[in-house]
Specification:
single chain; 89 residues; alpha+beta; three-stranded antiparallel beta sheet; two-stranded antiparallel ribbon; 5 strands; 24% strand
Length: 89
């Protein structure tokens, strides 16, 4: 499930590069349901026969959505200012 989030980390020796247009495309393809699936954690449910069920944390879901939104904004800014590649070192 984490592969939907970790697509950015592709670099050599601590330097990560990705095309800004690729970030825009990847951020746009993630659905809220995919993010919620990643954010699920076990919670004790006394009413259930299994006693433990997976529940998505609204706080983690919203945090990830906000981070992805900011990444998308950065990528759109980069494209509009003719920066082709985003680099993190």
């Amino acid at each position: 499930m984490f592969s939907e989030i970790y697509w950015v980390a592709s670099g050599i020796e601590g330097r990560y590069e990705i095309k800004a247009s690729e970030v825009i495309k990847k951020v746009g393809t993630l659905s809220e349901e995919q993010i919620q699936n990643i954010c699920k954690s076990p919670v004790v449910d006394p009413k259930s026969s299994n006693r433990v069920r997976q529940v998505a944390s609204i706080f983690r879901t919203k945090s990830i959505q906000r981070c992805l939104s900011e990444l998308g904004q950065l990528a759109r800014w980069a494209v509009s200012h003719n920066y082709d590649t985003l680099v993190a070192a």
